[in-house]
From TrEMBL:
Protein name per the record: Pilus assembly protein CpaE
Lineage: Bacteria, Pseudomonadati, Pseudomonadota, Alphaproteobacteria, Rhodospirillales
Pfam families xrefs: CBP_BcsQ
GO CC annotation: cytoplasmic side of plasma membrane; cytosol
Cited InterPro entries: Cellulose_synthase_operon_BcsQ (IPR017746), CheY-like_superfamily (IPR011006), P-loop_NTPase (IPR027417), ParA/MinD_ATPase (IPR050625)
GO terms of molecular function: ATP binding; ATP hydrolysis activity
Amino acid sequence: MRITVEAFVQDDRTRAAVDAVSDDVRMRRSRVNVHGGGLAEAPAVLARTESPDLLILESDKHSDGMMDELDAVADYVAPESSVIVIGIDDSIALYRQLVGMGVADYLVGPPSEEDLLDAVLRVGSSEADQALAPVVAVMGVRGGVGSSTLACNLAYKLGRDISGEVVLVDLDISSGTAAINLNLSPRQSAADILGQPDMLDSAAFERYMQRYDDHLVLLGSTAQLDIAFRPPSDVLEALLNVLRRQYDVVVLDLPRQWSVWVRDLLLDASAVVLVAYPDLSNLRDVQKMTTFLTEKRKMSLPTCVVLNKVGMAQKAELAAKDFEDVLGRAPTASVPFEPVPFGQALNNGEPVLKKSSSKTFVRSIDQLAESLHLDLKPGTRASRKARKGLLAQLLSGGGKDGKKKKRGA
């Protein structure tokens, strides 16, 4: 979210709540200024500045006095600015009166951090932003743990679960394997798209995508060794927003590197999946990453830990309980080491889930998908595309069977 916020607070507890909102990862691209003096101080400050995207106004007066203060500030608020009012009266009538005046929300003060954040995110997001598809970021805490295979199968499962379209984006530009896993041969990658930002709003964007089936689309990697992939954050954000408008879920297969752009994708994702092998070095790295992400992303955004290739070297491995003791919670799922079905799937260029006889693997992916807590709207984009295609067919004179009708028939 990128908005400007001016908050005029009366109570120290409200100031603390605003500070907590400002620190939330979802607000890190926004600018939040906090002023004392409450609603009464707002006219003097707003007279010297541009009206922000969002105003938070707190008053310690009862309804009549608060209305007088709102009248005084009205001349300095642009029509496109949203307003959240915090007051002392717990009154449905007052709430309805304020909403009728155009106030976006009314909270009884001092509000909790959670209530204020919820209001700011809801009011500060446009309808278009709220309709964007969720993003799942999948990353291995160390190389070779099988995160790409897991990302591929997760994307495959989600598409079928919602009867919609999921896009799998391979952002390991130099050595990504998502295309190999699906037996596809991408000619261009995300690096090529990001090098031509004008492509993000054109129909030519579709040429970069490769379809595996009705539910899974790939933006693959071409394994280019001569590219230094350092995408600007605003261009990368624009690419993701295009994908989030076009598809029902976006699954990111991230490279194992701790760069600014990878960190930002992890922080912004609706859910994060960290894949680890059950040994000591993986435990150390997953502890560092979960600590960082939990602190920055807050508890409302899930970070899932998946142990992969469990049983590959039994005597040298740590148990899931060891991870639970260190992380403070059990791993979301444990995927067994099963070289035969995984090898066959790779050779066939298809997800393991497509023909897997492993009930354990199927159960692990089911557990992971449920733990993501995604707000999914089944098939909305797929059905919209179908309606659009049918409408175009009918307008061109074709029937439902695709055959053009004769005039006068």
